[in-house]
């Protein structure tokens, strides 16, 4: 038969698990902090650069969005002009071939 652990035992197990996890995190944090090859000035500079970068992110995103819209508009405009140029050529060809055959001539 297996016995269920008592409520008090489960609470102490949870406390020891959480305290062990917390101490492990602190140990890993301080080990990383102490062994990184960056001095305080560099760390502050990087943090301030990151803050400025995050501050400018919405405006850069908006600029990139506008550039993309303009690029797609240009591309679409060029394709539109090409398609209509081809259509005009086909219409001209059709008129010429219709003019060559009097029975199919279209009155303008």
SSE blueprint:
Blueprint: H1 7-35, H2 40-100
Number of strands: 0
**Number of domains as seen in the coordinates:** 1
Euclidean distance between termini CA atoms: 103 Å
SSE order, as H and E?
HH
Instruction: Report the principal-axis shape.
Output: elongated
Structural class: mainly alpha
Q: How large is the share of residues in beta strands?
A: under 5%
Q: Overall pLDDT, averaged? A: 83
Q: How many strands, what sense, and barrel or not for the largest sheet?
A: none
Q: Which ranges are low-confidence, i.e. pLDDT below 50, for 5 or more consecutive residues?
A: none
Q: Helix segment count?
A: 2
Helical amount among residues, as a percent range? over 70%
Q: What would you report as the Rg, rounded to the nearest angstrom?
A: 37 Å
Protein name: YtxH-like protein
Organism: Alteribacillus iranensis
Throw out a few tags for this protein:
108 residues, 0% strand, elongated, YtxH-like protein
């Amino acid at each position: 038969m297996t016995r269920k652990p008592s409520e008090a035992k489960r609470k102490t197990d949870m406390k020891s698990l959480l305290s062990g996890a917390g101490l492990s995190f602190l140990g890993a944090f301080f080990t990383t902090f102490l062994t990184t090859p960056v001095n305080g000035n560099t760390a502050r500079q990087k943090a301030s650069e990151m803050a400025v970068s995050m501050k400018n992110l919405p405006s850069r995103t908006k600029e990139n969005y506008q550039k993309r819209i303009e690029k797609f508009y240009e591309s679409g405009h060029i394709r539109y002009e090409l398609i209509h140029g081809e259509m005009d050529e086909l219409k001209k060809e059709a008129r010429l071939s219709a003019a060559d055959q009097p029975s199919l001539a279209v009155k303008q």
